[in-house]
Design brief:
Helices cover about 25% and strands about 30% of the residues. It is an alpha+beta fold. The longest helix has 18 residues. The protein starts with 6 loop residues before the first helix and ends with a strand.
Length: about 210
């Protein structure tokens, strides 16, 4: 087995940016994902997150199975990510019941659609989670994007987004939509809000 792939080292630019805005190009990446809406503090969001991790660890541990995926290599499971938007854009962004989201976990490039279906069936046999029915496998390419590391509470993210938008204006970039991506590097159950690390990112175009 080749050396272990660790996203904090091998994909450092995408997962450990500095706490200041920067422009990056995000390539096409394979994900397993679940879409939903409503308050992320609710049960549906928790079940969706659980489904994604169950699947991700099934893929990660598949080297122990009788049918190891072609091209398998050892790697660190990637962090949870979320794309966020609003159901009703006329309502304030502070209304969490108005959230629309797709949460996802990046997968290694050896995972195929066929492999995904196999791991999904295996996981369904082991886990009684209704959100497994909504899990899907897709590739996403964010392309030209503005990102930064947000350190602190989720409630303080608007300040970081304001910095990012000011940076874009100053350097001739235009934000393409209000939808944005968050990458969660801290466990909110174990980390003080003031120390949580979240990568914030949105797509841009060059003016």
């Amino acid at each position: 087995m080749s050396k272990k792939v660790d996203y904090k080292k091998d994909f450092k630019q995408l997962y450990l940016p500095k706490p200041a805005p920067e422009i990056v190009v995000v390539p096409r990446i394979p994900f397993i994902m679940v879409s939903g809406s409503g308050n992320p503090n609710g049960d549906a969001f928790a079940k969706a997150t659980e489904a994604l991790y169950s699947m991700s660890y099934a893929v990660r541990m598949s080297y122990k199975s009788d049918d190891v995926p072609v091209g398998y290599y050892e790697y660190t499971v990637f962090p949870l990510e979320g794309e966020w938007d609003l159901l009703d854009r006329s309502k304030p962004s502070t209304d969490k019941n108005n959230f629309k989201y797709t949460i996802m976990i990046r997968q290694p490039d050896f995972l195929t659609e066929e492999g995904f279906e196999r791991f999904l069936e295996q996981t369904k046999r082991k886990k009684q989670n209704p959100l497994l029915e909504k899990v899907r496998f897709e590739h996403v390419e964010d392309g030209l994007s503005c990102q930064m590391m947000h350190i602190g509470s989720f409630e303080d993210e608007p300040e970081s987004f304001a910095q990012m938008e000011a940076f874009c204006t100053e350097h001739g970039f235009t934000r393409l939509s209000k939808m944005h991506r968050e990458i969660y590097l801290s466990d909110p159950r174990k980390t003080e809000p003031s120390k949580m690390k979240t990568v914030l990112r949105f797509s841009v175009s060059k003016a």
